[in-house]
């Protein structure tokens, strides 16, 4: 298990980002999806927790085979996806990633948002007070991102918002900029396979860090697109974008319903007050299962036919002797 805490500051308020994070996640998922790969939205509905209150539950499948490193592609099936489950009780969220093909693999992310510049060192005292972890600050303006994801229009050093007047951030901007908020993320990566654990866990954290950096840069760079939206408007945008994304990757499920009325009583659908645990299955995924109606391949005859001893003697085959009483094999 490898635990890290990430802190990402943005020139926004926590109230503003409630809309921004929903808009960013939907648009980012759509942009990163292509036919056969991307983010399929399976479920998106209201959720009520006895401890955290009302929220939203989403379940997604992230198809990403081509995005894996070569050493990982060699050991996973061509049709490969990670299941994402998220409980959004903004300004507190929980996200879990699991994979049925890799039952010993999981990512658990707890997020808290506060209006400060990342100065709260005790924000996760209830969740991980005694757990050793590395604290990593991510600077959306100055940290480098993978070249293939760079867009000048999404670079906070160059972008300036017309609606808010914020932008063109310079080194040290976190020390003086107002408003400012921080996204605190406690990320636990587990891959309990001897010989691969350290390598995989370190690789996953690198990927997580890149995604967090890119996503938060985009959320700010797209601020003029979502800044005037209401919650109802961003939910409609979310629904329409998710359906378009499913079609884009070649999946056509029933229309996604995002309503304000829970589908089941809260007593049935409530999550535990602490971080929920997603059961991991050791069963093979569907695409690895043998169809039940497939005829069994016969590699050998079901019965053994012995040669006729009289014909064997007539042919004078090796190991035979001509006599009035032909030899028969001893049957046990």
UniProtKB/TrEMBL annotation:
<dbReference type="InterPro" id="IPR023393">
    <property type="entry name" value="START-like_dom_sf"/>
</dbReference>
<dbReference type="GO" id="GO:0035091">
    <property type="term" value="F:phosphatidylinositol binding"/>
</dbReference>
<protein>
    <recommendedName>
        <fullName>Cytoplasmic phosphatidylinositol transfer protein 1</fullName>
    </recommendedName>
</protein>
<keyword id="KW-0445">Lipid transport</keyword>
<dbReference type="GO" id="GO:0005737">
    <property type="term" value="C:cytoplasm"/>
</dbReference>
<keyword id="KW-0813">Transport</keyword>
<dbReference type="Pfam" id="PF02121">
    <property type="entry name" value="IP_trans"/>
</dbReference>
<dbReference type="GO" id="GO:0005634">
    <property type="term" value="C:nucleus"/>
</dbReference>
<dbReference type="InterPro" id="IPR001666">
    <property type="entry name" value="PI_transfer"/>
</dbReference>
<feature type="region of interest" description="Disordered">
    <location>
        <begin position="267"/>
        <end position="332"/>
    </location>
</feature>
<feature type="compositionally biased region" description="Basic and acidic residues">
    <location>
        <begin position="322"/>
        <end position="332"/>
    </location>
</feature>
<comment type="similarity">
    <text>Belongs to the PtdIns transfer protein family. PI transfer class IIB subfamily.</text>
</comment>
<keyword id="KW-0446">Lipid-binding</keyword>
<feature type="domain" description="Phosphatidylinositol transfer protein N-terminal">
    <location>
        <begin position="1"/>
        <end position="243"/>
    </location>
</feature>
<feature type="compositionally biased region" description="Low complexity">
    <location>
        <begin position="267"/>
        <end position="285"/>
    </location>
</feature>
<comment type="function">
    <text>Catalyzes the transfer of phosphatidylinositol (PI) and phosphatidic acid (PA) between membranes. Binds PA derived from the phospholipase D signaling pathway and among the cellular PA species, preferably binds to the C16:0/16:1 and C16:1/18:1 PA species.</text>
</comment>
<dbReference type="GO" id="GO:0008526">
    <property type="term" value="F:phosphatidylinositol transfer activity"/>
</dbReference>
<dbReference type="InterPro" id="IPR055261">
    <property type="entry name" value="PI_transfer_N"/>
</dbReference>
């Amino acid at each position: 298990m490898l635990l890290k805490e990430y802190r990402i500051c943005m020139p926004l308020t926590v109230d503003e980002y409630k809309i921004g994070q929903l808009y960013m996640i939907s648009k980012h998922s759509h942009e990163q999806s292509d036919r056969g790969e991307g983010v399929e939205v399976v479920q998106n509905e209201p959720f009520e927790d006895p401890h955290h209150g009302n929220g939203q539950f989403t379940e997604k499948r992230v198809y990403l085979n081509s995005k894996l490193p070569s050493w990982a592609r060699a050991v996973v099936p061509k049709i490969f996806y990670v299941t994402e489950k998220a409980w959004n009780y903004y300004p507190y969220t929980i996200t879990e990633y699991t994979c049925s093909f890799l039952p010993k693999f999981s990512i658990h992310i707890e997020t808290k948002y506060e209006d400060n510049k990342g100065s709260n060192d005790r924000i996760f005292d209830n969740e991980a007070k005694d757990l050793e972890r590395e604290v990593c600050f991510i600077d959306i303006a100055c940290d480098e991102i993978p070249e293939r994801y760079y867009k000048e229009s999404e670079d906070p050093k160059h972008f300036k918002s017309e609606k808010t007047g914020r932008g063109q951030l310079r080194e040290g901007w976190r020390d003086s900029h107002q408003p400012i908020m921080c996204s605190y993320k406690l990320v636990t990566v587990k891959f309990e396979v001897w010989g691969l654990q350290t390598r995989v866990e370190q690789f996953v954290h690198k990927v997580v860090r890149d995604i967090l950096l890119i996503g938060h840069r985009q959320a700010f760079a797209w601020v003029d697109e979502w800044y005037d939206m209401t919650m109802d408007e961003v939910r409609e945008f979310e629904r329409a974008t998710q359906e378009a994304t499913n079609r884009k990757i070649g999946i056509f499920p029933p229309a996604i319903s995002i309503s304000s009325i829970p589908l089941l009583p809260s007593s049935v659908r409530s999550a535990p007050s602490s971080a929920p645990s997603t059961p991991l299955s050791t069963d093979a995924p569907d695409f690895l299962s043998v169809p039940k109606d497939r005829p069994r391949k016969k590699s050998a005859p079901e019965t053994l036919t012995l040669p006729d001893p009289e014909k064997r003697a007539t042919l004078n085959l090796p190991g035979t002797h001509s006599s009035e009483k032909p030899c028969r094999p001893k049957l046990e």
